[in-house]
Write a structure and sequence with these properties.
The protein is mainly β. It has 2 helices and 8 strands.
Length: 185
């Protein structure tokens, strides 16, 4: 503690100056700015205010209408309602036959394809135990080599099915394709 009269440095617990004998007054450290009533520091009040603000924002976010999670129609397991479930993805660039199992009442096959050569086509067929249940073609004419898509859908019984992709052999045309199979259950 520094003496206010002679500026001599004294120990912090000194009551009088060791050099001149002047009584020393107790001074509060400058970083603890307490109010006159001995209450909270300004720093503590700011932290408390920020905490209350954060608590308010979180409470409003939780209670705001439309933010509650609920069972939707897309969650067939929990809600008891059927929805489309992807069960397989196949990729290729030539003829192929792919098998899959259907558990529900509908099947949907979504095909995207892009030719590697001009003037070609692609045929997609869905087979069940009784033969072809759905089919369609994609065709590219002239210089067209754009990405195309198609979708096939049928009401079916649970069981084994297959999808056949047929690309013409003459000339040796190749088509990059992706087949996605969906089951409705």
């Amino acid at each position: 503690m520094i003496c206010p009269k002679c500026r001599h440095e004294n120990p912090n617990d000194a009551v009088i100056c060791e050099f001149c004998g002047e009584p020393l007054k107790f001074q509060m450290p400058s970083d603890s700015k307490k109010d006159d009533k001995g209450g909270f520091t300004v720093k503590n009040l700011k932290i408390l205010g920020v905490g209350i603000l954060i608590l308010f924002i979180v409470t409003v976010a939780i209670l705001w209408p439309g933010t509650h999670s609920s069972i939707s129609d897309n969650d067939s397991y929990l809600s008891g309602h059927a929805s489309w479930q992807q069960i397989a993805i196949y990729n290729g660039n030539s003829d192929d036959l792919m098998s899959f199992q259907i558990e529900g009442s509908k099947v949907k096959v979504y095909i995207t394809a892009q030719p590697l050569k001009q003037d070609t086509s692609l045929k997609c067929e869905i087979y069940g135990v009784s033969g072809i249940i759905s089919s369609d073609d994609l065709a590219w004419k002239g210089a067209d080599t754009s990405l195309k898509a198609m979708s096939l859908q049928s009401n079916v019984q649970p069981g084994s099915y297959s999808v056949n992709i047929d690309v013409p052999d003459t000339p040796a045309n190749q088509v990059n394709w992706t087949v996605q199979v969906f089951d409705y259950y």
